[in-house]
Amino acid sequence: MVQWYKFVLYYLWIAPHALLPVVSVLMLMRRLHKSFPVFFLYTLYETLGFLLRFAAYGFASGRLYRYAFIVTLAGSTALRFGIIQEIFNHVFHGYSRLETLATASMRWLTGLLLVAAILSVVYSSGSISDNLMAGVALLSRSVAIIQAGLLLFLFLVSRIFGLPWHSCAFGIAFGFGVFASTELAVSALHLTDLTEHSKDLLDLLPTGSYHVSVLVWLGYLLAAEKPLGAATHSVSEMDQWSGELERTPQ
Amino acid sequence: MSSTIVFVLIAFVLLVLFAYLATRRTRDLPDLDRTVTAIRSLDMEAFRNLVDPEEEEFLRASLPAQAFRRIKRERARTALIYVKELSSASLQFARFGGAAQRSPDPAVAAWGKQIANSAIYLRLRALDASAQLILSATFPGLRPRPLRSLLEHYDRATGLVLNHNALRRTHSQAS
Known about the structure:
The complex is a heterodimer. By secondary structure, chain A is mostly helical. Chain A has one domain. Helices cover 85% and strands 0% of the residues of chain A. In chain A, helix 1 packs antiparallel against helix 3, helix 4 runs parallel beside helix 6 and helix 6 packs antiparallel against helix 7. Chain A is globular, with a radius of gyration of 21 Å. By secondary structure, chain B is mainly alpha-helical. Chain B has two domains: 30 residues; 144 residues. In chain B, helix 2 runs antiparallel to helix 5. Chain B is flat. In chain B, 36% of the residues are buried. The chains are: A mainly alpha, B mainly alpha. At the A-B interface, helix 5, helix 6, helix 7 and helix 10 of A face helix 1, helix 2, helix 5, helix 6 and helix 7 of B.
């Protein structure tokens, strides 16, 4: 293995997982673990999962590492669905009628995305090799289709109705959006006949995008919510606006 | 290979969309001037007449069928322009409400919540009204539901802003 590749691979594998405990600590310090308990659990789970996989990679057989990878991936996938639900609850909290409409739309969309994912599996199953990792890539692609679709739905609905996002919720959703999109491309490419060199390079993409996601979460956590400056500015604008409106004939 | 290209393209489009939405978020601040200009340009009385079911019944009874269909189409298209402006104003209301919700003053934050809620329902009604008006323009013979609730929501949303202004004035006079 070329030296630079080895360095980049290890960096992209270790760095985001070294930053995740910082995300957890920041959440604790800002008491955000109470508002986003599933995401907080996810950061802890990912850190522990990484330690387990790293130990299996360094001290155990390749087979044991693969099993550790698959088991931790399953838990991580389930938690990510929980996080999407958590963000959904945050975005629509307090807008009861819109929440009812969005819940129904989201159920339909999940059903449609599930059908699309199953169809894509059925369509691809004849052309892929019959091994465990190919099965995992196929499953990852299906999960990525559903998660990216749900996140896009959340972003679009909130934009259509001008719903205010807590900046932390936005950061979490944006980070997962980046990760799910990359995962979709990478898992699709993994199902094709690639050379070993191409596969090695492709392995850098999901870890790289995960690194970007963790940096996004960290950035949104560090950047303070703008309650005072932005709100005061907007409220003074509102005073001016309501004055203008008052002069407007109804 | 072709399905792989499709998935990679979808992934790329999604990435671009997520990045676009993230960058737009910082720029999506309430646009005071545009909203005031839009609201001032709206002749609400004319709009009320355009969507008045009694007026429509009168036209249906007094005009020949072909002329009625032509006029109904024109009225629906004109009303659609009004609804688009109302819808756009509701988005600005929602953004103002959202910004006010982050205020350290609990009274302003509560008022912001009310404004945002009212604006969101106004937007919902505006989207519903747009669909109905498009249907009316396409099939003038149909009798669509009256758009009374859209007008009620508009009055409520603007009323909330005006109440705030009156309250603010009372506060400043008292102090």
